[in-house]
Design goal:
This protein has 3 domains: 61 residues, no CATH class; 138 residues, Glucose Permease (Domain IIA), CATH 2.70.70; 127 residues, Glucose Permease (Domain IIA), CATH 2.70.70. Strand 25 and strand 26 form a beta hairpin. It is mainly β. It is elongated, with a radius of gyration of 35 Å.
């Protein structure tokens, strides 16, 4: 009968027996020690141990018969790649907020305060979530979500989590000078510590932005520190202010051309601020678009005129709209060209980093913003405020 014990296993048992008995006792039991007179007590002890040694010897003989020639070892047993301490994540529940469905990923932010109550004051927008912390807090995993810290500094961190077939990237920012991120010793539970005050008399604000495959995903925080994640990325028709995360209302604006949305392009809808008096539009906020590193140009929506408006600016005019493309960054380029007619659908403006300003005949400078699918809008654009701006530091 085959015992199912490999040579390697028998060697382990021999080693274990040698360690338990000591080299001298082991040598005596296996017959390798020199003969000497034994006391009656030793004879009784060795008699009992002899039974174990005899059994071991039988196992060795049987194993050698089935193991083949001397020096030939049985194949090693496969080692499981699963960690014995790994715990399967619980499936997140679905919750509805404002008519939209979200996955409840459990607690992400844990307060270090002993006082009961919320972790902080939450502000949720379609493009970002923020929380003004009450005390020093910690970023942590939950039973529904495990986050990996891909990179981290004193003011920002990049986390990655996998949920089924979805891979979510979570960008975390602290608002200076109040907040500082610090690593936590490995294996203690939390991922990062957020020093709320850092010696300042006001709390820090933590900002979270979620993406999936580079596309924005709406993430919402609750005041208990739990994270809700939309079941799908935002659609291309969304227009989001890149600095406040607010959804912009472009229903009163005019679609006017498209910008590329490939991986070589970065588009940010930004705020130009409100001009002071005595400007005729004093107090009225306008928006500009920062369009960076496109590898093909703006698609003209109508027939118009393309010209050089200055050594580092280009202009498109058509359909009563004027777009000025202002070159920024360290590009050693100077434009000099005669005005030319371009057809609708033609791509204009070379590769570079640009700020785009829009004007409409009879109105002057107006807001301009770009949807996630690259559609450009000009005219009246509103969000939580008229093209909202982040407050300037004082």
């Amino acid at each position: 009968m085959r015992l199912g014990i490999s040579t390697a296993q028998l060697r382990e048992r021999k080693t274990e027996l040698r360690n338990r008995l000591g080299p001298r006792r082991y040598a005596e039991l296996t017959g390798t020690a020199s003969r000497r007179r034994l006391s009656p007590r030793a004879k009784l002890f060795l008699g009992g141990m002899g039974i174990a040694a005899g059994t071991l010897g039988i196992l060795l003989v049987i194993a050698n018969v089935f193991a083949g020639e001397e020096g030939e070892e049985a194949p090693a047993r496969p080692v499981s790649s699963e960690s014995p301490t790994a715990t399967a994540l619980l499936p997140p529940s679905l919750v509805a907020v404002g008519g939209r469905e979200y996955l409840d990923l459990g607690i992400l932010i844990v307060s270090g305060s002993s006082d009961p109550g919320p972790v902080g004051t939450v502000f949720n927008r379609v493009g970002l979530a923020s929380i003004e912390l009450r005390a020093t807090s910690y970023l942590a995993t939950s039973a529904f979500a495990t986050w990996e810290v891909v990179s981290a500094s004193r003011t920002d961190a990049f986390l990655r989590g996998t949920f089924g077939d979805r891979q979510i990237d979570l960008s975390v920012y602290t608002q200076r000078p109040g907040g500082v991120l610090r690593p936590v010793a490995a294996g203690v539970g939390p991922l990062l510590e957020i020093d709320s005050a850092n010696g300042y008399p006001f709390p820090a604000t933590l900002i979270l932005i979620a993406t999936e495959g580079g596309r924005p995903v709406e993430a919402r925080l609750r005041d208990d520190g739990s994270l809700l994640l939309a079941t799908a990325p935002l659609g291309g028709g969304f227009v989001v202010d890149s600095y406040t995360g607010s959804a912009l209302d472009v229903s009163a604006a005019r679609p006017f051309g498209k910008l590329p949305t490939n991986v070589a392009t970065t588009i940010r809808n930004g705020c130009n601020g409100a001009p002071p008096a005595p400007h005729p539009r004093a107090g009225t906020v306008s928006c500009r678009v920062a369009w960076s590193r496109a590898n093909r140009g703006f698609t003209a929506p109508v027939e118009g005129t393309f010209s050089c408006a200055g050594p580092r600016s280009l202009r498109f005019e058509g359909g009563g709209v004027r777009l000025d493309f202002l070159l920024v960054g360290q590009f050693p380029i100077a434009f000099a060209c005669e005005p030319s007619t371009v057809a609708a659908g033609e791509n204009i403006v070379p590769d570079g980093e640009w700020v785009i300003v829009a004007s409409i005949d009879g109105v002057g400078e107006v807001a301009i913003a770009v949807a996630l699918d690259g559609q450009v809008f000009v005219g009246e654009i509103r969000g939580d405020a008229a093209c909202p701006c982040l407050p300037r530091p004082t």
